[in-house]
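Need tokens for this chain, all 420 residues.
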Amino acid sequence: MARDASDLTITAADGATARGYDAYVTEFLSYGARLRDLFAVADAAPDAPLINAHAAALHLAFEGAEGWTNARPYLERMRAGSSASERERLFCAAVDAWANKDFHWALGHLDELSVRWPADLCAIKWAQYHAFNLGDQPALLRLARRARIAHEGRPYAHGMIAFALEQNHDLDAAMAEGLRACEIAIDDAWAHHAIAHVHETRGHPEKGARWMARCAHTWDAKGVFIRDHNWWHTALFHLNAGDDAGALAIFDERLWGAWPEFPQEQIGAVSMLWRLEMRGIDVGDRWAPVVSQARARADEHIFPFHDVHYLYALARAGEPGEADAMRNRIGAHAMALNGPAASTWKLALLPAADGAIAFARGDLAAAAAAFAAAEPHLHLIGGSHAQRGLFQEARTFAAAQTSAHRPIDSHHSSTPLTRN
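Here are the structure tokens for all 420 residues:
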């Protein structure tokens, strides 16, 4: 048994394993580019349940079917471990629930772990990941407050706190925490992201663009997710400031192509292309490669937030009948669910899915009505306020166009939507 940098035990591990785990924790909290190094650490410690649980978690966090396939050997090792500590057993139970796509139970186990062992900042970060995907903003903040207990003034903790505060509408405190995080660690990309959210929520795109320009030099050393996502926010600032060309250039240079198979890159691209077209910008043939990737995800039904983006891509630029077929499969999946997930898919995703298809086809009255029906429940599908703002924008756009009785060109032509 070894101990990590927070003096927490790691069963069936030696010093080298503990050092490898500590390196992974730093990479994870900082959104570093060397997370995959953990797989070699886990392969060298097959009897260490916690290490293999974290390796499985990394694969599952890919958020596509491949992640579940690649996690399998690590899950088997995790489940075979019989001598884990109580803290390790809670983390393993969370990963087991996650592998079974029971995300609420995964969060529940991590919630309990963080109460009893707040020194485990990595587990708190994973808990925030699930709270975010479940649209549970109070849990995000509850977990952030626990991070203070053992990690006040330490790198990357305050970025976690800042984002939780922003998602719970405490913008002044979020800004203060985000700036403090950057003073502690200038490369805290999640703190950069939290402050971006504050500027977005306050409607200050120029300030947001300037802030992100100051931070961007640190992102090249980060993993694909935070690189893509922070550039997505930067493009959104340019778009909202009226710099259409700048937003389109960021899409071409930063938002698409680094890892097209990555679901987060796919949904970011769908979201940005949809927004660009609502601003009247001709995106040319940029939909084609995105649709190709979305098509490969159409049967996965892992996260409702992802599915509505894939569905819009297929409806906007896919083959005839593709979107309807996916919508039917989403409906069947929703009807087969039980518990909290059933409510999310039925109350939020199904009307949002209908809205996405109607919008893509130019039936804006139907789109506005469907998005309005989904809106009270949309927080349940996950994503941030800024990300879900896409559907509010689409509803507003559709309602305005319908009210004005203005015809629009088919989305399947080369002409973009008319600007308001």
